[in-house]
Amino acid sequence: MVFSSVEFLFLFLPIFLFAQSLLPYRNLVFAVFSVFFYFVGEGWYTAIVLISATANYGFGRLIDRQNHPGARKWMLALGITTNILPLLYYKYAWFLLKTAAPGMIGSESTAPHLPLGISFFTFHAISYLTDIYRRDARAERSFTNLALYILMFPQLIAGPILRFHTIAGQLRRRVISLRHLYFGFTLFCFGIGQKTLIADPMAAIADPLFARTLELNSLEAWIASITYTLQIYFDFSGYSNMAIGLGWMTGFHFPKNFNFPYISTSITEFWRRWHMSLSQWFRDYLYIPLGGNRGSKLKTYRNLFIVFLLCGFWHGASWTFVVWGAYHGALLVAERIGLDKWLTPTPKLMQHGYALLAIVIGWVIFRATTLQEAGAVIRSLFVWNAPSIDILWQAFNAERILAAVLALTFVSPILIQRVRRLIAIPMVGDWPRHASMTSYVLGGGLALVTLLLATVKIMGGAYSPFIYFRF
Predict the structure, then answer these.
(1) CA–CA separation, 116 vs 84, rounded Å?
(2) Exactly one of 180, 275, 315, 328 is catalytic; which is it?
(3) DSSP tag of 444
(4) How many whole angstroms separate alpha carbon 111 and alpha carbon 420?
(5) What pTM did the predictor assign?
(6) Is 315 a catalytic site residue?
(7) pLDDT score for 282
(8) Coil, strand or helix: which one is 454?
(9) Which residues of the chain have pLDDT under 70?
(10) How far apart are CA 159 and CA 169, in angstroms?
(11) What's residue 316's pLDDT?
(12) Residue 347 gets which letter from DSSP?
């Protein structure tokens, strides 16, 4: 079940919100609905996430009760290993075996089914155990509360990644006001608009082109690369906004996950703005434990590269993801070494141009199914040949042109910030300030129109799963 589906919008969500409002034991109700939500998509693989919740409940209590530093560390290591083993099996075992011993895998063999959201709920579990180990939080005594933290359906499949110590208090007590409901509803509506009205039309252009990567000419390569760059941003940020909006409607304050990443002037800035909950998770639970920037410059560069190499591998068991992570790690190291000092005195336009070009090339690697395909597209970007102008007529129609205009408009905060002075819209994930009743009415009306247009698109029968559902 996906958020942009008739079943979710008109059946599951209304019943869930009704039950949350009227029934006692809100956390239990939320947890039950989350289990059902996951079961609809994954069937009996739901047992994996339930076992994860149960095991982590036990590990958390053991770590919290233990005062001996050595024993605490061993229990944490055992708990993290227990969480990582299913991830290694379902996501990486087949890839590693195929790479190390290809003769052991038959030509008709396929990888094990990848449970939805396994990367995300594994990270949540590791955050929980680590926060207890560091004394940033106490072990959750209520199994229902912990199960809800791991299973919460708005962010279970594709984030944002929640750290336990930031949400523990909300699991025990949360207040829902009319302002919370307005904020959540409008953010949810704009999120579904990002997905269905912008990302999906961009996918309709990019997907057929990436299906024949070895044959693309220069113009096609640029169209494919740019439209996918727009697609993945509006697809993923749209999902995040929907998840955050659902959180607000139920009293949870999820962290902002995107902050206009394509206005960045460097790759360092890009990673402060893109998938912020993932960047912060890697910083707090991997980069800092590795030593961060506390040692020599060489160790700092090593730590950065390791983190982004693993970040790429986290996205999927494929050499394209590994190379994508290494590519971003190398760029971050290069900026630390001195590239940023060379870029800073240059005009802002040149800095933006460098960052956008680097980002687009990275997304080509990310999107391609093989390194050969990625290399072919990148080569076509820079080795120009004269394409037929008919390509433009084949790739674009009125809907896609409008979507492209919207994408290029909302990829920057300039217009949104101006519009927010007139109407109360939470497009950047924070509270509209000093809003009048008229502003709230206008903002709510715009949200309803967006939801209506998205619903018409969904009712048309087009199905497009969120990109990050496969991670």
Answers:
(1) 15
(2) 315
(3) H
(4) 48
(5) 0.93
(6) yes
(7) 92
(8) helix
(9) 101-109, 386-393, 420-422, 424-435, 461-465, 468-471
(10) 19
(11) 85
(12) -
